[in-house]
Write a structure and sequence with these properties.
Blueprint (H helix, E strand, L loop, with lengths): L21 E4 L12 E2 L5 E2 L2 E4 L11
Parallel strand pairs: 1-4
Antiparallel strand pairs: 2-3
């Protein structure tokens, strides 16, 4: 499947009324470039929820 941003609407799975769509945001809390975005034909905006997803740095374990 191609990203939804290419068409301006949520992709095939995201258009189902009961589907929960998840997006990623970058440091300034903007929707990540690679995250699908848009709306269902009915006008519902997608994604439903988003979280940090760009340049995530894991904690470092030191002895």
């Amino acid at each position: 499947m191609e990203p939804a941003a290419a068409t301006g609407y949520a992709d095939v799975v995201g258009v189902v009324a009961t589907a929960l769509t998840v997006g990623a945001v970058d440091k300034p809390d903007l929707l990540a470039e690679f995250a699908s975005r848009g709306m269902r034909i009915s006008g519902t905006l997608k994604p439903d929820i988003s979280a940090s997803g760009v340049a995530i740095v894991p904690g470092i374990f030191a002895e």
